[in-house]
Amino acid sequence: MRTPSKESDLWQVIGILRRFAELGDEEARRAIYGAFDRNVTGDNVNDADELIALDGIGGFLHAFTMLGDKQPDLQEWWQFDSWIEGLEERDGEAEAWAALQEAARLNATLAAWLAVREHHRANLKEKWANHRQSTPCMRFGEIALLVAESAALEWRENRGKLRSAGRWAKPATVKRAAAALAEETDGGRLNRWVQFFTTTPFPGDPNKLLERTYDEGEYVRFDAALALSRVSHPDVRVRALGLADEQGREVECVRLLESNFRAGDEALLNRLLDRLVSEDDRHWAVMSIRRIQEQENISDDLLIRAYEITPCSICRGGIVDGLIEESRLPAWIHEECEWDAYHSTREAVLELKARADRRID
User: Fold this and answer.
1) Beta carbons of 208 and 181 less than 8 angstroms apart
2) Which among 53, 89, 141, 184 has the fewest CB atoms less than 10 Å away?
């Protein structure tokens, strides 16, 4: 903690320290509070979650001092709300609110924030109810217009809208969009149609999507691989195996195998993982392997390798959850995860251990 390195490492160190603090280590508790006060990760909003999980209302009130005497601000409201949800999760809603109301009786600023929170949540509830009454689906004509308007824009602009349109599209709309992509000749519009299919499976011949994997643009290839990750087709598998031989295309290869995995591919995937250097690439690749894990019975050695190299606590926990569900969790991982940085992973293995102890008794 005295020598900050990467932010992701610091968050995980704080998570591990919390485990020691829960067992009564006061030095670990002081280190967590000191890290929060110094904002060593640059994100003490998330660090506050550890304080609250550790000490309940005491941790919450310490985190609240970060806001000082500031009046309620909608820009920071989500932070405050997440802290309350953490307190409710730890202590139960009734006990959490009894403690908050008692604290607010002595703290006018806290009382003001709580009042604004309730007002804002009521407004959100009303907006969400109105939203649910209206369909989020866009008509094909609206999507085609969005594609045309977005063709010349920077890659990120309107990408989220097109991905959302694909996620909610009705089958008939998806079919028309696939036909439009197959007939499209303009590169800019074609890239936008590809973005539409990053969230819904492409139902036709994937040739046009495969063509985009040869594009010079990194972002174009990124979206093409995302779209193809949802397509099960012999040609997609062939392209994946070809990408395996290209340095720097490892993540795309793994993505294309998400829906085209075959028994025995574990050796190839292990080789690809060994070639990855950056944490981002390792994260993307392990996310794809987790999706394969959800659909296929893959070997322990690949899952353990993914567990070992991922920089992401959530991905690591997902692998562990899958191994627990299949009764395949190695004893050494079970023991190690009792001290994992991610509280959900710790809780999962400790519950598994408790169930085993009850069977012995």
Assistant:
1) yes
2) 141
Q: Which string of DSSP letters, residue by residue, matches 273-322?
A: HHH--SHHHHHHHHHHHHHHHHHS---HHHHHHHHHH---HHHHHHHHHH
Structure-token match 């659909």, residue found: 295
Distance CA 163, CA 203 (A): 16
Q: What is the pLDDT of residue 134?
A: 47
Q: Tell me which residue of 116, 46, 106 sits closest to 82, measured CA to CA.
A: 46
pLDDT at 127: 62
Task: Report the candidate in 168, 239, 249, 169 with the shortest Cα–Cα distance to residue 210.
Answer: 239
Alpha helices in 134-257 (DSSP H): 140-150, 159-168, 171-183, 187-196, 207-212, 218-228, 234-243, 250-256
d(CA 263, CA 299): 9
CA atoms within 13 A on the CB side of 293: 28
Identify the pLDDT of residue 240. Answer: 98
What pLDDT does residue 361 have? Answer: 62
Residues of the chain with pLDDT under 70: 1-9, 40-46, 67-77, 124-136, 361
Nearest one of 238, 159, 236 to 199, comparing CA atoms: 159
Distance CA 186, CA 86 (A): 49
